[in-house]
Amino acid sequence: MENSDSALLHLSLYLVQSHGGKPRQVFVPKEWEEHIRQSVHGYQQIQQLLEELSEIEWQRLLDRKDERRDLYQDASGLFTIAPPRQGKYRSRRCLWWDLSDLTS
């Protein structure tokens, strides 16, 4: 017959963190468990929000890149309409396109 005390499991909470690519852990006393669980939940929510923000900013970057590419293609199309005029800005030599119907 088995001793009933040895059949009972003793559950303990450990907080595990990756540090320098390696896991480390620390025992959490029973009286801290609720606070630690709430903190971990808050941390996970922050991580999720950061992921969402990162995705939004990534998409904004791609959109701006596409807009810039479109602007460049539009401008390069204008270069074929009229020949450039040589000019100078400070110490740099430049090419200027002056299109009479271009208002902005």
Can you characterise this structure?
The protein has about 100 residues and is an alpha+beta fold. The strands form two sheets. It has a two-stranded antiparallel sheet. It has a two-stranded antiparallel ribbon with strand order 3-4. It has one domain. The chain contains two helices and four strands.
Briefly, what is this?
The chain is of the alpha+beta class and 104 residues long. The chain has two helices and four strands.
Which secondary structure elements does this structure contain, and how are they paired or packed?
Layout: H1 4-7, E1 13-19, E2 22-28, H2 33-79, E3 85-89, E4 92-96
Q: Separation of termini?
A: 93 Å
Structural class: alpha+beta
Number of strands: 4
The level of helicity is 40-55%
Can you give keywords for this protein?
single chain, 104 residues, alpha+beta, two-stranded antiparallel sheet, two-stranded antiparallel ribbon, 2 helices, 49% helix, rod-shaped
